[in-house]
Amino acid sequence: MSNLNELFAEIRNEFPALTQTVHGKRLSYLDSAATTLKPKVVIDRITKFYTNEVSNVHRGAHYLADIATQAFEGARHKIANFIGAEQFEEIIFVRGTTEGVNFVANTWGLTNLKAGDEILITEMEHHGNIVPWQMIAEKVGAKVVAAGILDNGEIDMDDFKNKLSSKTKMVAFTACSNVLGTNTDVAGMTKLAHAVGAKVLVDGAQIVSQFKVDVKALDVDFFVFSSHKLFGPFGFGVVYGKRAILDSMPPYQGGGSMISKVTIEKTTYNDVPTRFEAGTPHVEGAIGTAAAIEFLENIGFDKIHAYEMDLLKYATEKLLEIPDLKIYGMANDKGPTISFNLKGAHHSDVGQILDQEGVAVRAGHHCTQPLMARLGIPGTVRASFSVYNNRQDVDALVKAVVKARELLL
Ligand code: PMP
Question: Which CATH number does the domain housing residue 315 bear?
Fold first, then answer.
């Protein structure tokens, strides 16, 4: 572990945001499930694009446009390789996980779902993987159904199996809960969904920074994630879709780039992926994401996982020593995220006290109101860990929670 600690101490130095103090205190940034901080290599890569390479892509017949286009399309190849896609055309650029789900719901969903069909989700989905399905369901007369969760935060697989039927046309679930930390059995659930003929969309927002994802091996039909939770820029995300399914889907938005030929009477559309990418894209988003992936791959997911699991274990043990503290989500397979409450204290009050101590957490419903209803609480305090955190951050968290308990209970 000491080698790992040394390595991650160096990695911590690559995040300029961590050099500042907050309310006069050392910053313990424990909100990576909301967004990760950005390493210098990503910031520098975006600066380089804006400084030297700045140009629109695909359309210019000049040097800078070529450089920008190469970097932009190079990012598509890098991302395809990163998640194990077979072809780079299977990578569609969007604004983030939320737009990714909306994109699939409004293209695949609108063409393939009909009255009486069911979309199976789970009780622990983020609103971004609930509301788009409800909106499409309402349009076509389909129904959204949710599999329950067990008290330890794992999906109730009996309920999941019971709710799968010939009516199920889409199964959309998260690979990792942003609240409970639960990692789900993506391959297993996908197999069960395919057995009833349903397509599968996986919300990868919380998993891509933890594990090497292999969409081909998992056999998922769609996989979506946001770059900003992966050390990359805001406003950029990815939809992976199996080529044959993407080829069968109608366009998403109309405009430049997505066309093959336009006349006043009629437009024919481009092939995938450009068919789905109308207008000037988020060029530095793609380029910055490629830099973020390189950053992660240079560290190695095996090391990241070992380090984060050690922090998770340490933090869980330390927090559980605090009287009146309850942790929500104790799944066997967990990401580096801990949701908790102090019995009798409001999560927002705890969050505020932690902030004053320089400990950045999130307090609220985390865009998972159905999960909060299932847990019977309005919200939680959530501490989430990443490559730049260390035991000092955990100790600061524990000390601040002890202080909050003294002040609030
Ligand atoms: N799903 C999960 C599991 C998430 O954690 C988030 C972000 N909190 C989203 C979806 C939505 O991601 P974004 O806001 O980047 O679109």
Answer: 3.90.1150.10
Q: Which two tokens stand for residue 308?
A: 């984060």
User: In this predicted model, what pLDDT tens digit does every residue of 74-112 receive, in sequence order?
Assistant: 999 999 999 999 999 999 999 999 999 999 999 999 999
Last residue of a domain, one of 274, 297, 320: 297
pLDDT, one tens digit per residue, over 15-36 is 999 999 999 999 999 999 999 9
The CA-CA-CA angle for residues 73, 79, 85, to 5°, reads 110
CB 55 near ligand 1, within 6 Å: no
pLDDT, mean of residues 366-387? 98
Is the minimum distance from the CB of 128 to ligand 1 under 6 angstroms? yes
Domain hosting residue 9, numbered range: 2-30+301-408
Q: Which residues are catalytic?
A: 367
Per-residue pLDDT at 60 exceeds 80? no
- CATH number of the domain at 288, please: 3.40.640.10
For the Cβ of 232 lying below 6 angstroms from any atom of ligand 1, the answer is: no
In eight-state DSSP terms, residue 107 is: I
- 65 membership: H or E segment, kind and range: helix 63-82
Q: Are residues 50 and 13 in the same domain?
A: no
Query: What is the CA(229)–ligand 1 centre distance, in A?
Result: 8
